[in-house]
Design brief:
There is one protein chain. It contains five helices and five strands. A hairpin with a 4-residue loop joins strand 4 and strand 5. By secondary structure, the chain is mainly α. The chain is elongated, with a radius of gyration of 24 Å. The strands form two sheets. It has a three-stranded antiparallel beta sheet with strand order 1-3-2. Strands 4-5 form a two-stranded antiparallel ribbon. The protein has two domains: 35 residues, no CATH class; 73 residues, Orthogonal Bundle (Arc Repressor Mutant, subunit A).
């Protein structure tokens, strides 16, 4: 009976492609619950989790990239790692790793002799322009 309900719920949520695997897992879980408890009823709840398992520095790089492309961070604006770290609750190392990714993709660059990064991407043109 549990497999029937799981199959129906997956179908309702357009997740029918997962039915065979989820039915197997459900069957095993319900069998174990019956074998190892004295409960008269067993409740089963299906939860769909849409999670991003990317590392923090990748997530922060994406967020910052989107702000650069939208023009929220204007060309030549300073983006201090300490500011990113504080704003998003991550470590300085994570912020520097995110900025390094953005630098490798030419969204930001370092000012010679300084640790800080500046936006090199020009949202008006959707590209990096030569520094001048």
């Amino acid at each position: 009976m549990a497999r029937f309900y799981v199959r129906a719920a997956l179908g309702y949520h357009d997740l029918g492609d997962y039915a065979v695997n989820v039915e197997m897992v459900t069957s095993e879980l319900v069998s174990n619950a019956i074998a190892h408890t004295s409960a008269r009823t067993i409740n089963l709840e299906l939860i769909r989790i849409d999670a991003d398992y990317s590392p923090q520095y990748v997530k922060l790089a994406r967020i910052t990239r989107d702000k650069i492309e939208s023009g929220e961070y204007e060309r030549l604006a300073a983006i201090p790692a300490t500011g990113l770290a504080g704003a998003y609750g991550v470590s300085i190392r994570v912020a520097y790793a995110a900025l390094a990714i953005l630098g490798a993709n030419r969204y930001v660059g370092r000012v010679r002799g300084l640790k800080s990064y500046r936006v090199t991407w020009d949202a008006r043109y959707g590209q990096t322009r030569a520094r001048g």
